[in-house]
Amino acid sequence: MRKKIVAGNWKMNKTWEEARILTAEVMGMVADEVTRPVEVILCTPFVYLSSVKSQLGNSRVKVGAQNCSEHDAGAYTGEISAGMLQSMGVPYVIIGHSERRQYFAENNKTLAVKTDKALASGLTPIFCCGEPLEIRENGTHEALVKQQVEEGLFHLSADAIQKVVIAYEPVWAIGTGKTATSQQAQEMHAVIRRHIAAKYGQMVADSISILYGGSVKADNAKELFACPDVDGGLVGGASLKSREFVEIVKAC
Ligand code: 13P
After folding, report:
1. Taking the complete model, does pTM exceed 0.85, yes or no?
2. Which CATH architecture has domain 4-251?
3. Is 97 a catalytic residue?
């Protein structure tokens, strides 16, 4: 059985004080209200990881980073390595979010290296893929997403790829309020899983959690998560409000 996961991606939001309040609220509500075995992750800005992690203590809620460097160490001002995250006990890291691809020129080649660095440090990469609007409109979205997965992940061994979580996030659905329909999400998740199965076999493909991201809200989460190949969500805006986020967790 693959893991059900709901991860909040806070992006560049919240002051430290706000982060503490949000963490406390989510932690409390998850403890009181979430009985199902769903992994809950808060991907906070780097500067809050340490304090959020100690605040969470032995709560079932985990922390994740939003990025890591493709380098191990050295003169890379402003960068954070996978090894640094490991040394702080951070278990998850988002790799290749579309905003990183779009604003920071990250490409599949760099993302393959970042994935390697994360895995080598024992972190679980949450590897993002997804097509922009014009690609969806010209009908080449399946080809593009398959290429993203192939170039980012297919150099990995069967053992290694099973340690990766994939997030399908159509760019046109991110922060727009325009969610993919559950049918569109299911179709693309199945495309990704079949593509993995063709290379690694069905058992490997069936063991990998594929999350949906893009305007997931409390009122659409249930329908999205009911799709057979959707194993949870990567949630942006709605993860900034504790009640809304926990309702999404409960829908999983
Ligand atoms: P929204 O949920 O705000 O659309 O963002 C999705 C996302 O980018 C999560 O990584």
Report:
1. yes
2. Alpha-Beta Barrel (3.20)
3. yes
